[in-house]
Amino acid sequence: MRKPVLAMPLAAVLSAAALTMAAAPASAAPVPATSSAVLTQAKAAKPPVKAKHIKRYNLGRTALRRIAISQKWARTSKARSVVRCESGGSYKINTGNGYYGAWQFAAGTWNGIGGRRYARYASNAPKFAQDHMAWKLWKRSGWGPWGCA
After folding, report:
1. Which residues pair with residue 106 across a beta bridge?
2. d(CA 145, CA 133)
């Protein structure tokens, strides 16, 4: 019969391990206090964006899950090369040509895919938001909207 596993914050496990090792006799072999499962749970719990962004943009679990997927997609070599070609890699770029941000969104496209949630123009939105909206557009239209693709 399996014993139930208790979930504890990583900091509590590590501080308990330090106390256990300090109280153990010098001849006793140290016992590992953390398992890979506890460390994996601690890593998995970290959200893909800063807490201030979660609060400011009222991001729920579904949005955070999609943002995490879009961040992984944005790190692909193809996506990175498109951003370098479109904007030189600058997420704040506004050259006055009617296209904004790293992915060079037109204002209408940005608003049409939901970018207005983050900012009026893509160049004013945080990096994660631009990548998220680019991923949404890519899912809908493929690489077609970007001339550099």
Report:
1. 99
2. 12
